[in-house]
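Review form for a predicted model. The reviewer records the input and the model, then writes brief findings.
Reviewer: anonymous (R2)
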Amino acid sequence: MRVFITGASGWIGSATTDEALAAGHQVIGLARSDASAAALEAKGATVLRGDLDSLDVIRTGAVDADAVIHLANKHDWSNPAESNRAERAAVSTITEALEGSGKPFLFASGVAGLAQGRPSVESDASPFTGPDAMRGGAENLALEFLDRGIEVVSLRFSPTTHGVGDHGFVDVLVKAAVRNGAAGYVGDGTNRWAAVHRSDAAKLNVLALENPSAMPIVHAVAEEGVPTKEIAEAIGRSLGLPVVSVPQADAAEHFGFLGGFFGMDMSSSSTATRETLGWTPTGPTLVEDIDAGAYAQV
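Model under review:
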């Protein structure tokens, strides 16, 4: 297939591009910089220049491809409203372009906030609806097109998709530990975070691409839940720093914007995803990655 990937040079996107090319697909990657374009071309992908606000370019990429994987996101934590707006606009553009085509449309989402007091599952509906919601309510918006001629698949990623070079939430936690001279967790640290290695997430993306009618929501979850205290302890070992409990009232000061998330329970199950798609994660666990020095560059 000719697969148009937004975020093709990003953290999850670059690994997904590699997996798609290895599986024999042709990748057309959206690139906003010369460096991103060069990296994609070196892999053997075709480049389409533009960014998340280049809606005409995104529309063209979607129409000209056999399938779309939308992984780009602004991730502007200083202005989440702008990130939500851009995400909803991109998903709206792609779904409108693909309506009635029967093409697969896969897009990034997350497991955060889906369930309380238990691991979330694939059948849990997203509570985020409307343009002002997390990710602009894009999951619910896109899933409406299941009955409008698009093979829609929500790729719900763990709160940490980890590995060497990760600049996501665990990287933020490591930097907070360096800044404060201690690796912290919120409260008693028993709340859990689901986790997946980047390589396993990329393999799942391609499995879902090749089997889009199998299920409309998949969970990229290798570990159902790692206690946040264990994450902090691994960071402490890696950096040679003490490990401390941070009161919820002080979480924002210690962790920055992540303070509002690190005390949440974001555990999740991928049982249905594994059984339906035959996905078997094989990458290292989150703690194994940290202990092996995946975040030592910080």
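Findings: The chain has a mean pLDDT of 96.
Further findings: The longest helix spans residues 80-98.
Recommendation: see findings above.
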